[in-house]
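Problem: given the chain below (388 residues), write out its structure.
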Amino acid sequence: MNKFPTGGVAERPFTEVMLAFRANFAAGSEVGAAACVYHQGKPVVDLWGGFADEASTDPWRADTLGVLASPTKSLVTGAALVLVDQGVLELDTPIAHYWPEFGVNGKDKITLRMVLSQRSGVVCLDHDPITREYLRTHTPIAEAIAAAKPEWEPDTAHGYHATTFGHLISELIRRRTGLTVGAFFSREIGKPLGLDCYIGLSDPETAHLAHMIECKAEELMTGADPGEIEELRDPTSLTYRATMASMSQDPADPTVEEPSYGGLASAQSLARYFASFIGEVDGFRLISPAVMRQIREVHSTGDCLVMLSPCTWGLGMQVADSPVFPAEVGLGTAFGFSGANGVFAFADPENELAFAYVPNAGSEVMGSMDDRIRRLTEAVYRSVKKSS
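Solution.
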């Protein structure tokens, strides 16, 4: 039985995306994967293929859910910006106004905008690391964040909030709505849009979950030789402290809310979600054009203090130009999120595009765009040019 795509459609002129998708399998780069494209608010590509398990016995399906890893933060961003649009949260009001306990140890002037643009400095929980039990109860993680100290003067530099981002914003949302981010996302975004996107899956027995094969980043987190990445050998480095020393090392549990890494989604639903940022999808638009424009504004650029590689951030999303989100493949007017496990999603209001790719074979590269993603993204933009 071959591993070529087993289902889906690609409308003209987007058939080139299907060819690129098949090329990834032909190159031996995939075990299982799905890709979806929305154009002008409608799905024009919906592809899936290969297998959801490493043993190649469980075929990937249209509704297969993959672990999002870092792009989970894009779900959190959307939830926060919905509340900004509603006036429930303000981007430039100190977080301590809503969460008084947060305003200690030099955090009294930190705003939601600083967190969304990776500039707050609150990136380490090594003083009280996340555990499985903490994830189940939420409150201890919020208390650890409230006790944390910024690793640099807030708003003077940027560094990836790898472990803290989702939890910090989740507590902020809980303070204003009574709901953690997973529950808020489900009620206010997931259900109205009809999404198979989750931060905490209440009944995993009813879902078809892909078995995610370890990517290079995950191998490092579980003790693999970091090679030339010396900082991951040094427990005193900011890279180590903000990642390995702060996160839970327990096996992932799909039932708990892990809003920095543990989201689940099908490619179809992830693309639909991103499409709702830039226009109506079956009558639902996530945020206003005014707030959407702020996502695209460059808030941080240059070398990241945590990951030690170039990255450019808008408001809660990556924007061009950087090795992981390069303008050269067509992304110059887009915003989105890349994951070290290969998951990639973006929206491009200028081209009325939304795209999502969810594989289970992790990326072999760190700090640059995976060839599989590059092949698909370039095909998407070539197709858009043909449609104009």
